[in-house]
Amino acid sequence: MSRTNFDTLLEAGCHFGHLKRKWNPAMAPYIFMERNGIHIIDLHKTVAKVDEAAEALKQIAKSGKKVLFVATKKQAKQVVAEKAQSVNMPYVIERWPGGMLTNFPTIRKAVKKMATIDKLTNDGTYSNLSKREVLQISRQRAKLDKTLGSIADLTRLPSALFVIDVMKENIAVREANRLGIPVFGIVDTNSDPTNVDFVIPANDDATKSVEVILDACCAAMQEGLEERKAEKIDMEAAGEAPANKGKKKSAKARLDKSDEEAINAAKAAAFIKEDEEA
Q1: What is the pLDDT of residue 258?
Q2: Of 201, 212, 204, which is closest to residue 30 (Cα–Cα)?
Q3: Among 189, 217, 198, which Cα is nearest to 37's?
Q4: Are residues 100 and 175 in contact, defined by beta-carbon separation less than 8 angstroms?
Q5: Strand pairing of 38-41 and 16-19?
Q6: What domains appear along the chain, each with residue ranges and CATH number?
Q7: What CA–CA distances, in Å, run from 201 to 84, 185, 192, 262, 278?
Q8: How confident is the model at residue 138 (pLDDT cuts 50, 70, 90)?
Q9: Which phi and psi (to 5°) does residue 93 adopt?
Q10: What pLDDT, in 10s, does the model give residues 5-45?
């Protein structure tokens, strides 16, 4: 059974393309006709492509891998954030940080910096700092959270990228292509589909259009996650799951409280110095 249908896509306005003079010839196979100078997308092909993409995303979710959603255009931000959170997937809705995929270790360092600042907050180090120092660190934490907070749980490169408007997010698409990461994308008539592995021809400017397509894809991913959970429960019931060996003890000796406070104070000073240099 199809995950969406012609009428649903039609009501959402998925069929509206761009002006004829702005079209990309590579999108010709997905264009049904021209009307009043605007290209109309063939929704029968959109339905087929949504099903194809949804099935692939379901398998990725079922295998326990991550899909990174990318949408920095205003009308798609909120929808993408909500849908990605519903399936516990990372997302980027602010400016795409250049090198996020090709220079992933550096991005992870910035994410770890957020965790370090949080630790300073919880262990009482803030009480030994001046108001100015606390304010500087707090500002740095807020800045990092705005751009990287939504990918804090992404500890390794994603297995796929889901992009809204491949033309606007061309840097993200190029990075994924360079690393061989599959790209799923909602592609409008003015965009180039050649760099997208799973093309979903549709209007990428209307919030309703994006929402309908994401509904179908995220529903499939949710199915994959539930199947994975069910299989895990069955394996544990059958006694096939590996026995818990307990937590490994740390090889390093615990630091004295005074030493730990000194280290935390040094870290706080480093954050303040870095903020001033920036």
Answers
A1: 47
A2: 201
A3: 189
A4: yes
A5: antiparallel
A6: 4-97+156-236 (3.40.50.10490), 101-155 (1.10.287.610)
A7: 20, 8, 11, 57, 42
A8: confident
A9: -125, 0
A10: 999 999 999 999 999 999 999 999 999 999 999 999 999 99
